[in-house]
Predict the 3D structure of the following.
Amino acid sequence: MFGKSHRHWYLPALALGAAVLLACGSSGSELVGSWKGMGPRGYNQDVADFLADGSCKSLEGGERRFCSWSARPGGVLLVRYGTDADAELQAEIDGDRMWLKQGGQAQSAWVRAGSKLDGTLAAYTKGMSLIQAGDSEQGMAALKEAADAGLLSGQYSLAWNYATAKDPRFQDGKKAVDYAEKAVAQLHDYLTLDTLAAALARDGQFKKAADTETEAFSLLEKEAGLSDEDQQAAEELFRKRIDLYQGGQAYTEE
Protein backbone atom coordinates (compact mmCIF):
# COMPACT_ATOMS: atom_id res chain seq x y z
CA MET A 1 0.00 0.00 0.00
CA PHE A 2 2.67 2.52 0.99
CA GLY A 3 5.64 0.76 -0.63
CA LYS A 4 7.90 -1.99 0.65
CA SER A 5 8.35 -0.59 4.14
CA HIS A 6 4.63 -0.26 4.88
CA ARG A 7 2.87 -3.13 3.13
CA HIS A 8 2.53 -5.41 6.13
CA TRP A 9 -0.37 -5.92 8.49
CA TYR A 10 1.08 -5.11 11.87
CA LEU A 11 -0.37 -5.62 15.32
CA PRO A 12 1.95 -3.49 17.50
CA ALA A 13 3.82 -5.55 20.08
CA LEU A 14 2.39 -5.14 23.56
CA ALA A 15 4.40 -6.32 26.55
CA LEU A 16 2.79 -9.30 28.25
CA GLY A 17 3.92 -7.64 31.44
CA ALA A 18 1.22 -5.02 31.00
CA ALA A 19 -1.07 -6.94 33.34
CA VAL A 20 -3.57 -9.75 32.89
CA LEU A 21 -4.16 -12.12 29.99
CA LEU A 22 -7.59 -13.67 29.57
CA ALA A 23 -8.01 -16.76 27.40
CA CYS A 24 -11.68 -17.65 27.28
CA GLY A 25 -12.98 -21.16 26.76
CA SER A 26 -9.58 -22.73 27.45
CA SER A 27 -8.18 -25.25 29.91
CA GLY A 28 -4.74 -23.74 29.55
CA SER A 29 -3.09 -26.67 27.80
CA GLU A 30 -2.96 -24.84 24.46
CA LEU A 31 -1.27 -21.88 26.13
CA VAL A 32 1.59 -23.97 27.53
CA GLY A 33 4.77 -23.73 25.47
CA SER A 34 6.98 -21.13 23.83
CA TRP A 35 5.66 -18.31 21.65
CA LYS A 36 7.37 -15.83 19.34
CA GLY A 37 6.17 -12.27 18.87
CA MET A 38 5.32 -10.87 15.44
CA GLY A 39 6.42 -7.44 14.23
CA PRO A 40 5.90 -5.42 11.02
CA ARG A 41 8.18 -7.57 8.83
CA GLY A 42 7.90 -10.95 10.48
CA TYR A 43 9.30 -12.00 13.82
CA ASN A 44 10.54 -9.46 16.34
CA GLN A 45 12.81 -10.42 19.25
CA ASP A 46 10.01 -11.01 21.78
CA VAL A 47 9.47 -14.48 23.24
CA ALA A 48 7.17 -15.83 25.94
CA ASP A 49 7.23 -19.18 27.76
CA PHE A 50 4.21 -20.62 29.59
CA LEU A 51 5.02 -23.64 31.77
CA ALA A 52 2.67 -26.40 32.90
CA ASP A 53 3.33 -25.59 36.58
CA GLY A 54 1.58 -22.24 36.20
CA SER A 55 4.68 -20.09 35.88
CA CYS A 56 5.61 -18.00 32.86
CA LYS A 57 8.31 -15.65 31.69
CA SER A 58 8.97 -13.45 28.73
CA LEU A 59 11.69 -11.43 27.07
CA GLU A 60 10.19 -8.32 25.49
CA GLY A 61 12.12 -5.37 24.19
CA GLY A 62 15.22 -6.88 25.80
CA GLU A 63 13.60 -6.92 29.25
CA ARG A 64 13.06 -10.19 31.15
CA ARG A 65 9.69 -10.51 32.91
CA PHE A 66 8.27 -13.18 35.20
CA CYS A 67 4.63 -14.04 35.75
CA SER A 68 2.19 -16.75 36.79
CA TRP A 69 -0.94 -18.11 35.17
CA SER A 70 -3.94 -20.04 36.45
CA ALA A 71 -7.18 -21.48 35.09
CA ARG A 72 -10.42 -20.03 36.45
CA PRO A 73 -14.03 -21.24 36.21
CA GLY A 74 -15.48 -20.99 32.73
CA GLY A 75 -12.19 -21.79 31.05
CA VAL A 76 -10.68 -18.36 31.70
CA LEU A 77 -6.90 -18.20 32.00
CA LEU A 78 -5.35 -15.41 34.04
CA VAL A 79 -1.71 -14.52 33.55
CA ARG A 80 -0.55 -11.98 36.08
CA TYR A 81 2.53 -9.79 36.38
CA GLY A 82 2.53 -8.13 39.78
CA THR A 83 -0.79 -7.07 41.30
CA ASP A 84 -2.16 -4.63 38.72
CA ALA A 85 -5.47 -5.99 37.42
CA ASP A 86 -6.65 -2.82 35.68
CA ALA A 87 -5.52 -3.87 32.21
CA GLU A 88 -6.81 -7.17 30.85
CA LEU A 89 -5.96 -8.86 27.60
CA GLN A 90 -8.00 -11.60 25.96
CA ALA A 91 -6.04 -14.32 24.20
CA GLU A 92 -7.52 -15.96 21.13
CA ILE A 93 -5.67 -19.13 20.15
CA ASP A 94 -6.22 -20.72 16.75
CA GLY A 95 -3.91 -23.68 16.27
CA ASP A 96 -0.40 -22.26 16.36
CA ARG A 97 -1.45 -18.60 16.31
CA MET A 98 -2.34 -16.40 19.26
CA TRP A 99 -3.71 -12.87 19.32
CA LEU A 100 -3.84 -10.71 22.41
CA LYS A 101 -6.79 -8.35 22.39
CA GLN A 102 -7.92 -5.46 24.52
CA GLY A 103 -11.40 -4.05 24.17
CA GLY A 104 -11.93 -6.30 21.17
CA GLN A 105 -8.91 -4.83 19.35
CA ALA A 106 -5.87 -6.97 18.56
CA GLN A 107 -2.76 -5.61 20.25
CA SER A 108 -0.17 -8.23 19.34
CA ALA A 109 0.24 -11.49 17.46
CA TRP A 110 2.23 -14.58 18.45
CA VAL A 111 3.22 -17.88 16.85
CA ARG A 112 3.96 -21.15 18.65
CA ALA A 113 7.69 -21.89 18.54
CA GLY A 114 8.67 -25.10 16.78
CA SER A 115 5.46 -25.38 14.77
CA LYS A 116 5.28 -25.72 11.00
CA LEU A 117 3.97 -22.16 10.90
CA ASP A 118 7.04 -21.09 12.86
CA GLY A 119 9.29 -22.37 10.07
CA THR A 120 7.18 -20.70 7.40
CA LEU A 121 7.23 -17.36 9.19
CA ALA A 122 10.97 -17.67 9.73
CA ALA A 123 11.36 -17.90 5.95
CA TYR A 124 9.10 -14.87 5.51
CA THR A 125 11.05 -12.87 8.10
CA LYS A 126 14.33 -13.80 6.44
CA GLY A 127 12.99 -12.82 3.03
CA MET A 128 11.77 -9.41 4.14
CA SER A 129 15.03 -8.70 5.97
CA LEU A 130 17.13 -9.62 2.93
CA ILE A 131 15.02 -7.48 0.59
CA GLN A 132 15.26 -4.52 2.95
CA ALA A 133 19.04 -5.06 2.96
CA GLY A 134 19.11 -4.95 -0.85
CA ASP A 135 19.48 -8.68 -1.55
CA SER A 136 16.40 -9.22 -3.72
CA GLU A 137 17.59 -12.52 -5.16
CA GLN A 138 17.96 -14.35 -1.85
CA GLY A 139 15.10 -12.41 -0.28
CA MET A 140 12.59 -13.37 -2.95
CA ALA A 141 13.75 -16.99 -2.76
CA ALA A 142 12.91 -17.00 0.96
CA LEU A 143 9.58 -15.27 0.33
CA LYS A 144 8.77 -17.91 -2.28
CA GLU A 145 9.28 -20.62 0.33
CA ALA A 146 6.77 -18.89 2.61
CA ALA A 147 4.35 -18.17 -0.23
CA ASP A 148 4.42 -21.75 -1.51
CA ALA A 149 3.62 -22.92 2.02
CA GLY A 150 0.39 -20.89 1.78
CA LEU A 151 1.33 -17.92 3.97
CA LEU A 152 -0.84 -14.98 2.94
CA SER A 153 1.74 -12.30 3.74
CA GLY A 154 4.33 -14.34 1.84
CA GLN A 155 2.08 -14.52 -1.22
CA TYR A 156 1.24 -10.84 -1.48
CA SER A 157 4.77 -9.72 -0.55
CA LEU A 158 6.31 -11.95 -3.21
CA ALA A 159 3.72 -10.80 -5.76
CA TRP A 160 4.43 -7.16 -4.90
CA ASN A 161 8.15 -7.64 -5.43
CA TYR A 162 7.67 -9.48 -8.73
CA ALA A 163 5.39 -6.66 -9.84
CA THR A 164 7.24 -3.57 -8.62
CA ALA A 165 10.93 -4.47 -8.26
CA LYS A 166 13.18 -1.62 -9.33
CA ASP A 167 15.64 -4.07 -10.89
CA PRO A 168 14.08 -5.47 -14.10
CA ARG A 169 15.80 -8.81 -13.47
CA PHE A 170 13.32 -9.52 -10.69
CA GLN A 171 10.18 -8.31 -12.46
CA ASP A 172 7.83 -11.07 -13.61
CA GLY A 173 4.25 -10.12 -14.40
CA LYS A 174 2.91 -13.64 -14.76
CA LYS A 175 4.37 -14.85 -11.48
CA ALA A 176 3.18 -11.66 -9.81
CA VAL A 177 -0.39 -12.26 -10.99
CA ASP A 178 -0.25 -15.91 -9.92
CA TYR A 179 0.78 -15.16 -6.34
CA ALA A 180 -1.42 -12.07 -6.06
CA GLU A 181 -4.48 -14.08 -7.11
CA LYS A 182 -3.65 -16.67 -4.46
CA ALA A 183 -3.49 -13.91 -1.86
CA VAL A 184 -6.83 -12.42 -2.96
CA ALA A 185 -8.39 -15.89 -2.77
CA GLN A 186 -7.41 -15.99 0.90
CA LEU A 187 -8.36 -12.40 1.73
CA HIS A 188 -10.24 -9.99 -0.51
CA ASP A 189 -9.31 -6.54 0.80
CA TYR A 190 -7.76 -3.26 -0.31
CA LEU A 191 -4.19 -4.42 0.27
CA THR A 192 -4.35 -7.69 -1.66
CA LEU A 193 -6.29 -6.00 -4.47
CA ASP A 194 -3.69 -3.22 -4.63
CA THR A 195 -1.07 -5.96 -5.01
CA LEU A 196 -3.09 -7.72 -7.72
CA ALA A 197 -3.51 -4.44 -9.62
CA ALA A 198 0.25 -3.87 -9.63
CA ALA A 199 0.77 -7.44 -10.82
CA LEU A 200 -1.76 -7.06 -13.64
CA ALA A 201 -0.10 -3.85 -14.78
CA ARG A 202 3.32 -5.53 -14.82
CA ASP A 203 1.75 -8.26 -16.95
CA GLY A 204 0.46 -5.65 -19.40
CA GLN A 205 -3.22 -5.97 -18.40
CA PHE A 206 -3.65 -2.26 -17.79
CA LYS A 207 -7.44 -1.92 -18.01
CA LYS A 208 -7.94 -4.77 -15.58
CA ALA A 209 -5.24 -3.28 -13.37
CA ALA A 210 -7.00 0.11 -13.28
CA ASP A 211 -10.36 -1.54 -12.52
CA THR A 212 -8.81 -3.62 -9.74
CA GLU A 213 -7.06 -0.60 -8.23
CA THR A 214 -10.36 1.30 -8.33
CA GLU A 215 -12.00 -1.53 -6.40
CA ALA A 216 -9.11 -1.47 -3.93
CA PHE A 217 -9.61 2.27 -3.49
CA SER A 218 -13.31 1.82 -2.72
CA LEU A 219 -12.44 -0.72 0.00
CA LEU A 220 -9.72 1.56 1.34
CA GLU A 221 -12.25 4.36 1.77
CA LYS A 222 -14.23 2.08 4.10
CA GLU A 223 -11.17 0.99 6.10
CA ALA A 224 -11.43 1.95 9.76
CA GLY A 225 -8.09 0.61 10.98
CA LEU A 226 -5.81 3.37 9.65
CA SER A 227 -4.93 6.70 11.17
CA ASP A 228 -6.18 9.79 9.32
CA GLU A 229 -2.64 10.50 8.14
CA ASP A 230 -2.08 6.97 6.81
CA GLN A 231 -5.55 6.95 5.24
CA GLN A 232 -4.85 10.16 3.32
CA ALA A 233 -1.41 8.96 2.23
CA ALA A 234 -2.81 5.64 1.02
CA GLU A 235 -5.66 7.25 -0.89
CA GLU A 236 -3.23 9.59 -2.63
CA LEU A 237 -1.03 6.67 -3.69
CA PHE A 238 -4.00 4.65 -4.90
CA ARG A 239 -5.24 7.57 -7.02
CA LYS A 240 -1.78 7.94 -8.56
CA ARG A 241 -1.64 4.24 -9.37
CA ILE A 242 -5.09 4.33 -10.98
CA ASP A 243 -3.87 7.17 -13.22
CA LEU A 244 -0.67 5.26 -13.93
CA TYR A 245 -2.48 2.10 -15.02
CA GLN A 246 -5.02 4.04 -17.06
CA GLY A 247 -2.04 5.57 -18.85
CA GLY A 248 -0.63 2.15 -19.70
CA GLN A 249 2.25 2.15 -17.22
CA ALA A 250 3.25 -0.28 -14.48
CA TYR A 251 4.17 0.83 -10.98
CA THR A 252 7.84 0.46 -9.99
CA GLU A 253 9.29 0.95 -6.52
CA GLU A 254 11.75 3.83 -6.25
Summary: The chain has seven helices and nine strands.
